[in-house]
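Our collaborator T.R. sent over the components below with a one-line note: 'Predict the complex.' Nothing else. No constraints on interfaces, no templates requested, no preferences about which chain binds where. So this is a plain run: every listed entity goes in together, and whatever single assembly comes back becomes the starting point for the next discussion.
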Amino acid sequence: MNLNRQIFPALAGLIALTTSAFAQSRTIVIDAGHGGYDRGGVPGQRISEKDKTLDVAQRLKRILQADGYRVIMTRDSDVFIPLPTRVSIANSYRGATFVSIHFNCASRAGANGIETYYFRSDSASLAQSIHRNVLAGAPTENRGIRRRGFYVLRKTAIPSVLVECGFLTNPTEGSLALDAGYRQKLADQIARGIRGQPAPSVKPLTSSLRSVSLGNDFVRVPAESFNRGGKRSSKSSRSHKSSKKSTSSKSKKKSSKKSTED
Ligand code: ZN
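Returned assembly:
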């Protein structure tokens, strides 16, 4: 008896099931980061993050709608929407997929690249698909896919991904973000990722990721609850990207001086 004959179809089926889980979702909740008085980025940042996230989100909405997706926007204008409201919106659509759009910032102008975050294990393949596609369309570095307990990723009950579409504090990526054609490209690539289309190639990870992100993507998170279960509460619960601290020794070492990045 050829065992492979039996195992392989089962395995292939399982893989197909896993990879198609998000591709089959026909409702997409698009979350444009920031809005209203929350500009995003660092204080005094020249390019306002909230405008760029909304623009990419609206472009993505049009692309997906043309594809026949049902699209829900957590915001569709320049308004401030608290994170819990964004999550409630997402969680009211069962079977949907949540995609949060941000741009990065850092105190060091040289910091650049694309990075993508997820938290739920059912979101890993979606994160990979979006990351690879965005990266393929961006002439910049691969900062990798990271698992982090950011509020909108931790509290959503559906597959959810947050993509940082480049650094507005970087001269090159900042000017790209000011270009409507490039923002359309970003939206196109995110859409490809949502559809689960393969990306042409994957750039190697950026070797040095020493930049410090000082943005406030995740400020105004109610200082609640993720210290349930005995975990020490993060002192930075009011700060950006307050998340479960990564326990890997590597990131511990790296984060000693830059807790705001994680
Ligand atoms: Zn942001």
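Summary for T.R.: The radius of gyration is 18 Å.
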